[in-house]
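Form 7-S
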Amino acid sequence: MIVGVPKEVKDHESRVGVTPAGVKALVETGHKVLVEHNAGALSSFPDDDYQAVGAEIVGEAYNVWRNADMVVKVKEPTKQEYYHFREGLLLFTYLHLAPLRELTDALLEKKVTGIAYETVRDRAGSLPLLTPMSEVAGRLSVQVGAAYLQKEHGGRGVLLGGVPGTLPGNVFIIGGGIVGTNAAKMALGLGAKVTLVDLNLNRLREIDDIFGGRVFTLASNSYNIERAASEADLLIGGVLIPGAAAPKIVTRAMVSKMKKGAVIVDVAIDQGGCIETARPTTHSDPSYEVDGVVHYCVTNMPAAVPNTSTLALTNATFPYVLKLARDGAELAIKADPGIAEGVNTFNGHLTYKAVAEAQARDYRAVANVL
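Output:
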């Protein structure tokens, strides 16, 4: 199989879909790899590293997309990449289709097989390709939030850890999953007071055990969320419903009652965000204010630390890349139920139920269209 690795074009997206180590493994198993010029440069993987292990460096993205059987990316294609789509192309990347109707239209029209990292499942039923970036984003959310609390960024001027004689900052985390747990680790490490809310009481018990009671846990309901939000210096949204649009947990009215200069980091923004006042932003223009509250809603947060993020991501994705290259899409989908869960579009059909529900479209299970 010919595997294509284009350079990411989303604003300040500096990760890359395959590392030189991955290229070496693909070449050793008989595959050809096309890597766009400087695709890995911002992740500290120069062209020379790719060439040394057998990749062919291609000058233009068009030639990568046109000649590859499978394109491996990091982020969902942007509008300028839609014209590369063609029938028979296998696209393996984060897609986050629920809020992206136009991208869904393009994939369906061109009959692209779109396998989304965020919906692939392993034998335990977890999301192995979403986990590493959720870990990065969860930890980064506190780092970013701490910076935006500084007065120069419009924040309240609060040091999260405080100093002797002052109170620490209040961090309120919505969701006790991978994002929330990693955010709690970082916030506690900085010395903040941390409150976490989740619907699952068993998960709250686990959080209590993990952190030895140092994280204050609350059952998720609008009363608790409104009170905790009003006291927060930093609010982190980490709600996930796999493949579906995120529910709006924090309303506009709740935001209006938050402290002036408080900061919101909505990590769920890829799936539409779990804060009603959140809208997607970029690394070039990352923040805005609503009712005096600073919002940071960058849709590709892990790109801020691309070397760490690329290594963490490809550690998880590459075994699937190798399997898809070896078996081809149809055989791999039939043989691996976890890969089948990742198929969002196939031969002009929308094959992921949560995306179909979010966009009010018809849905067909991939098993019925193979």
